[in-house]
Amino acid sequence: MRGDKKQAIKPDLDFFSALSSLPSPEADKPEEKNLADELLTVAVPEESVAEKNDTVPFVPATEEVFAGTDEETTIFEELNESAEKKHKFGRFAAMNRNRITNRIVIGIFFVIVLITAILALLPIVLTILNSFMSSAEIRNHYSAIYESLSGYTGDKSRFVANPELRFIPDMVSVDQYATLLFKTPNYLLKFWNSVFLVVPIVVGQMAVGSLAAFAFARYRKKWFEIIFFSYIILMLMPHQVTLVPNLFIADSLGILDSWWAIILPGIFSTFSVFLLSKYMRQIPTSYIEAAKLDGAGEWHIFWSICLPMCKSALYAMSILLFIDYWNMVEQPLLMLKNTDLYPMSVFLSQINQKELGVAFAASTIFMIPPLLMFFNGEEYLIEGISRSGIK
Amino acid sequence: MTVPETETANNNGGSMVRINNKKRFKKLREALAFAKYLVPSFLGVSLFFFGPMVQIAVNSFQKSPTNPEFVGLRNYENVLSNAAFLQAGENTLMFSLFAVPLAVVLSLILALLLNSKMPGKSVFRSMLLNPMMVPVASIVLIWQVLFSFTGSINTYLGYFGIDKIDWMKSDLSRIVIILLFLWKTLGYNMVLFLAALNNVPPELIDTSKIDGAGSTRRFFSISLVYLYPTIFFVGIMSLISSFKIFREVYLLTGDYPYSSLYMLQHFMNNKFRQLDYQALCSSAIVMALVMILIVGILFLAEFKLGKEVEE
């Protein structure tokens, strides 16, 4: 973390002792308030204000301790950075020069990231905005696109030949939503299909997976390690491989062409086991030893220590699983013959081609549940993802 | 009983057998205590994955599901000489070969940019992570609007006097799919890298600054060393998601895409529809072996690099 790096330079023994008494590396949340303060004077003041409001769940105590010394340490760092130039330009010239080039470079970085971020959000925003156009407007504007796609038959002469992207509706209307929600219950049915498929998978896999992850995290002997390794291999296997065994077993159990053929393999998928156990191994053993001394059984350790301490991992894991299965395409295509049972993820592409007029609203409705989960638990999600990547 | 005690007892030799038995019994009980937690998962995984996998491996050497005559490697020969399978395998591998390194490098660059003294860091982080949470099916529509023959990109290109490009029905379709893949995965990878960058010990960087190392040098000789495990992890995760690219392709182009987008999953679906179980079994085994090979190489590379780093 940049903030701490700076302070550590200051030849003050207190700093090093303070640094070594940091609670844990995880406490170093990406928080750069003091740097942002410094940057308030740079080329892009509007955005830096956003940074100020932007508080991360737990601010490390060090942040406050060091805040006061920011000014000197900044200068100190820049002196060091320009060490090679110092003898050429003299002390102050080098300092100014360096500071200015630094800011220009950060300005360029900022623009690059800004453009990427806008591009990342563009499709989402476009979909939502277009969902408020009337069906007629959508058809006029976009049907030309579907000429070139397969199987489109319709009157082509009336449509815009070279469509540009369209952000603002001519007239805001909830036409599409009305059609979807009240006139054609079929779409909503598919939405509920998705829900009934995904929720049992996520709940089931979290339950089964966290138990297994606990076993792998607490007991690391030969056989367990072998099983764990085979789980990892299984996790790495693409659907193209794992769906074939699923298909065969579903066939012999007689559950092919029903939701169980998707739900049951989903519950026992090993993705969550791997990440959760990686996470549980990071729990300091002192907690577990202390509980054991108090006479706690393994179940107690699992239920009252492991699970609460893995809260963010559990949440992140459920979000990842949810979005993965909410997106599923391979399984229904292979397991279900009856298209009435299809989840919305598969069905949407058909809506796109046949009923362009309501497609944007259908897309928007479909992205609402995962987006809600995201905004609800973004901090947990980021923490969970972050810690999964660190050994 | 603590461990050192047993050890001394063993050395004495007298009551060794009894203590060994006791030890073994205790070990077994401990293992059973944890096995309880593993049972539901292990039963399920065995029933739905490992068990049928064995069945498939056996099937792949037989003539047909109804006729269990041993035919040696004939099914494999059939699959490996099948033009559709080879095409699908090549497409899938080519896609991963380009998409995974791009996903790793670009997200690392994004993380580094964001990690400089950037204002609005966490706002950007959410903005970039957002696409991960958007279902592909919801976004496919926009991709079609952008990239179909009469789509918006071609309209805009037309303003510069560039002829229409048939994005989805030429080899450029790979680029379209890679863009969609990157759009989805960059945010997740970037969060992983940001976390890893925070874990680089600040003292090391300071020392090198005092020694006069420039920022490029600092990155390559210090940060990158600490990033190796994360690069590996991100690579593996991107590899997993790159094999799911069938979703995007299917939603964009349906059952019969342009030939450079014909993926292995298309092949599997077709074989299933044709009830060609032998091809299904042997191709699944082939893919599993290839997958194990790739992952094995990656693990080996990581292991070697990790050793170098320690030295």
Give a written overview of the molecule.
The complex is a heterodimer of chains A (391) and B (311). With 391 residues, chain A is mainly alpha-helical. Chain A has helices at residues 2-9, 13-20, 33-39, 45-52, 61-67, 70-81, 83-89, 91-130, 135-147, 175-183, 185-218, 222-236, 239-253, 260-267, 271-280, 285-293, 298-309, 311-326, 330-335, 344-354, 356-376, 378-389. In chain A, α11 (185-218) crosses α15 (271-280). Chain B is an all-alpha fold. Chain B is 77% helix and 0% strand. In chain B, α4 (83-115) crosses α8, α4 runs antiparallel to α10 and α9 packs antiparallel against α10. The model of chain B is unreliable at 1-12 (pLDDT under 50). Classes of the chains: A mainly alpha (391), B mainly alpha (311). At the A-B interface, α1, α3, α4, α6 and α8 of A face α2, α4, α5, α6 and α7 of B.
What average pLDDT do the residues of chain B reach? 84
What gyration radius of chain A follows from the Cα positions, in whole Å?
28 Å
How is the main sheet of chain A built? none
Low-confidence stretches of chain B: 1-12
* Quaternary: heterodimer
Radius of gyration of chain B, in angstroms, nearest whole number = 27 Å
CATH topology of the largest domain in chain B: MetI-like fold
Gross CATH architecture of the largest domain in chain B: Orthogonal Bundle
SS summary, helix count of chain B: 13
Question: Which range does the strand content of chain B fall in?
Answer: under 5%
Helix content of chain B: over 70%
Low-pLDDT segments of chain A: 1-79, 82-86, 150-158
Task: Kindly give the count of domains of chain A.
Answer: 4
How would you spell out the order of helices and strands of chain A?
HHHHHHHHHHHHHHHHHHHHHH
Secondary-structure blueprint of this entry?
The complex is a heterodimer of chains A (391) and B (311).
Chain A: H1 2-9, H2 13-20, H3 33-39, H4 45-52, H5 61-67, H6 70-81, H7 83-89, H8 91-130, H9 135-147, H10 175-183, H11 185-218, H12 222-236, H13 239-253, H14 260-267, H15 271-280, H16 285-293, H17 298-309, H18 311-326, H19 330-335, H20 344-354, H21 356-376, H22 378-389
Chain B: H1 3-12, H2 16-59, H3 74-80, H4 83-115, H5 121-129, H6 136-147, H7 152-159, H8 173-198, H9 202-210, H10 215-242, H11 246-253, H12 264-273, H13 277-310
